Amino acid sequence: LKMSWIWFYLLLHLLMSAFLCHSIKAPTSSSQQSFKTNLFNFYHSLILADGKETTIHLLKDIPKRYYFVLEEGRALAPFTVTVTPCDVPIEWSILVHKASASFLGKAARGDHGTQEVSKSHKAPSMVSTIFNYKGNSVETYMGMSSHSALYLLEFLSTERDTHITVYLTTDTTSGHLYPELPMDPRIDVIGIGHTTVTLTWKHSPSVLQHRENIQYCLLVNEKHNYKSLCAAETAIRSSGMKLPPALALSLSPYLLEPQQVMILSNSELSIIHKASSGEVRQICMGTKNTYTVPSLSPNTQYYFDIFVVNLLTNASAAYTGTFARTLEEPEPKVTELKDGKVIQVVLDGKHQKFYSLQYQARHKKIQFTFQLCRGQVRVHITKNGKTVASENIAGLRYFSLKGKPLDTYLVQLRSAEESNSSVKVQVSPHFHKPLFPLLPESLKIKSFSKLRTCSSVTIAWLGTQEESKYCVYKKRIEEDQVWTELQSTDRCSGPESRHKSEKVLCKYFYDLNLQRAVTTETIKGLDAGTLYLFDVYLFGPSGIPIRYHSKVVKTRKKC
Fold first, then answer.
1. For a tag site, which of 151, 189, 285, 326 has the least CB within 10 Å?
2. Are both 392 and 461 inside the same structural domain?
3. What CATH number does the domain containing 317 carry?
4. CB-neighbour burial class of residue 473 (10 A; exposed 0-12, middle 13-18, buried 19+)
5. Sheet with 197-201, edge to edge strand ranges
């Protein structure tokens, strides 16, 4: 190492001496000015580490330079330089100062972008450009020098600030930092479903040689393919998702951020980066080279990238990305609605599937009735293909619609939350007697704190102008049961689902003046300092009950 530095400084000294002598002997010319500039570039550059991947940050329109030295020790000195753009296309070049004109070099994997390579140089200026490249693909230059030489790498971004990674090695015998790609690095799509896509790819030679240290990882998104793993990392960060310090697809769980969801099953690591602009799914599947991507959306185009990752160095190589569109979801099964008949529908909240009901009108006026039993439900009604109603429903909801006989109505229902929901649906000609009772302005039950005692509570609820039957039920509960009882209540269930011991009383009342249509009831015989759940059921002429919102009241502990 000391000999390398001694040789390097000696070379710089000789270059400077030659430059000074040349400038004294002859007047300034364009060639001399060019040489002076190149020499200045060498002095204002950074050393590029050998055998290590270096991350370089580039500012827009400001070139950045690194140098390295090849010593005179072997007949031919091989080296490789691999540059990985992590965002926008960049320009980079390799310049050499050497005493000999004999130089051999070639570019590997130069199938993207534009490049120029000089295979033989006889440059009188001593400083010459041996390689140019512009693009955003991962590019590797392989060279071999027959004499000692000083090399300069120059990088430039003309679009915006960005960063790249550069890997230089002069030791081609100790293996590869980057995993190797097969001769055919394409990803094949061998199966497409409504929510799945099956992929296969040829094994990396690195997997076959070092199976325990190599794994395949898949990136799935709806925007475009990525040419490198650091390009994917940059895109995810710019979309507003937070990432760990590195996007290593061998992530440990403790590196995850709140915006990430990790799923570990069957030896597979799946991480979902969520943002308002979409999600990027990241799946590592070990050394399997066939994988079925699950839980995709129907009729959606996805882009798939496979990376082979070295778990020891975190270096990766990208297969040629592909894309596929999932199949359209089949038309949902449609259930026919009949006049006056009530059906109850349970909706899957996890998969957000629509449930469809169809009705052909026999009259000009019809009325749809929806009674929400559990959860939240979205209702969408069309008449002959045109939307006539669309909203989330709560409690009991009526839609009175006008049209023509033989008009076709389609009702689509789905859960408005991730848990399952349930709703009762009925349709009938508008002039039919309503199936559900006339409802008061509010279905809330009120309790009076000042009237509470150690053994009784007083509750009140609103009635209607129609004489109806009201039944009161009570249930003793614990503190930790309150939330569960209120959330899991089936608001469509009637008193038949209650234990006989929970029944308190039934009564009839009404008042033509809605201002006075209020009734109160004092429930006695309760235990001190105890929580009770109270329910009121309203029965109309048809006998179908409507359940008021449950009320939790605690008796006084001391009196």
1. 189
2. no
3. 2.60.40.10
4. buried
5. 187-192, 197-201, 290-293
Cβ atoms 261, 244 nearer than 8 A: no
**Are 297 and 408 in the same domain?**
no
End-to-end CA distance of the chain: 92
CA distances 278 to 60, 397, 491, 534, Å, are 28, 35, 36, 45
Instruction: Give the tens place of pLDDT for each residue, 409-438.
Output: 999 999 988 888 899 998 988 656 667 788
Residue 289 region, left (φ>0) first, then alpha (ψ -120 to 50), else beta? alpha
Q: What are phi and psi of 212, to 5 degrees?
A: -75, -20
| CA–CA separation, 547 and 470 (whole Å) | 10
In sequence order, the β-bridge partners of residue 162 are 58
pLDDT, tens digit, 9 for 90 and up, residues 328-384: 877 768 889 998 888 999 888 777 788 899 999 999 999 999 988 888 899 999 999
Amino acid identity of residue 222, one-letter, is: E
Rounded Cα distance between 185 and 308, Å, is: 11
Using only C-alpha atoms, the chain has a radius of gyration, in whole angstroms, of 38
Structure tokens at 509: 């009342």
* 451 and 500, same domain (yes or no): yes
Average pLDDT of the residues in 317-332: 88
Confidence category of residue 249, pLDDT binned at 50, 70, 90: very low
63: which residues sit within 8 A by CB, 6+ positions away? 154, 155, 156
Does pTM surpass 0.85? no
Q: How confident is the model at residue 324 (pLDDT cuts 50, 70, 90)?
A: very high
Q: How many CB atoms lie within 10 A of CB 118?
A: 14
The full DSSP string for 370-407 is EEEEES-EEEEEEETTEEEEEEEE-SEEEEEEE--TT-
Handedness of CA 47, 51, 56, 61 (dihedral sign): positive
**What is the tens place of the pLDDT at every residue in 439-459?**
888 999 999 999 999 999 999
Whether residue 458 sits in one domain with residue 473: yes
Residue 360 lies in a domain: yes
Spell out the residues 6+ positions from residue 280 whose beta carbon is closer than 8 angstroms to its own: 219, 220, 221, 232, 235, 236, 239, 241, 272, 273
CATH code, 88: 2.60.120.680
- Distances, alpha carbon 127 to alpha carbons 11, 23, 36, 162, in Å: 13, 16, 10, 28
> Between the ranges 27-36, 132-141, 201-210, 445-454, where is the mean pLDDT highest?
445-454
Structure-block tokens of residue 295: 């839980």
Q: Quick one: 162 and 196 in the same domain?
A: no
How many distinct structural domains can be found in the chain?
Answer: 4
Residue 278, beta-bridge partner list: 275
DSSP, res 285: -
Question: Which domain does 86 fall in, by range?
Answer: 42-99+126-169
Is the pLDDT score of 211 beyond 90?
no
DSSP 102: -
- Residues 459 and 342 grouped into a single domain: no
The mean pLDDT value of the chain amounts to 80
Backbone angles phi, psi at 309, to 5 degrees: -115, 135
| Residue 354 pLDDT | 85
Let me know whether 184 and 165 are in one domain: no
Whether 130 contacts 117, CB under 8 Å? yes
Smallest CA-to-CA distance from 190 within 66, 85, 322 is with: 322
Pick from 362, 371, 376, 361: nearest CA to 542? 371
